[in-house]
Task: structure prediction
Amino acid sequence: MKRIITLLLFGICSLTNAQQKITFGYDSAGNQISRNLCLSNCGGTAKTVEETKEIEALVEDDLLKFSEEDVISYYPNPVKELLYIKWELINSSKVSSITVYEISGQVLQTFSRTENTDNQTISFGEYPRGVYLVALNYGNGEQKTIKIIKQ
Result:
């Protein structure tokens, strides 16, 4: 009988400690934005959301990339109001246009005449929350697509 009670108490203690090993972070609207696994010293709180910087205050380390060798950078994702996209003109592969799509494929916005620039700011303020696709169309017919989340 003592073994059963000991095992039962050990099981209850293990279950209550297991709930403290994952911490969650939430934004101001109550949406879960982070989940952190805590392996030791779980007394702390989850990380807070970083504030979105103004586009003028961006540095190269703030920009997100597809991969290290990629030439397209963007900030922020998820976006609330403005999305900033920057690309490098390499091997004369200029961006001929940028198109914003709903996830269903409907075209929302198109920016043309981007051959002579290396960046674009896109307003997402009037769009509802959801997932959007931003396609960069190159002059040689190639296309790269970025998945953007609107909060």
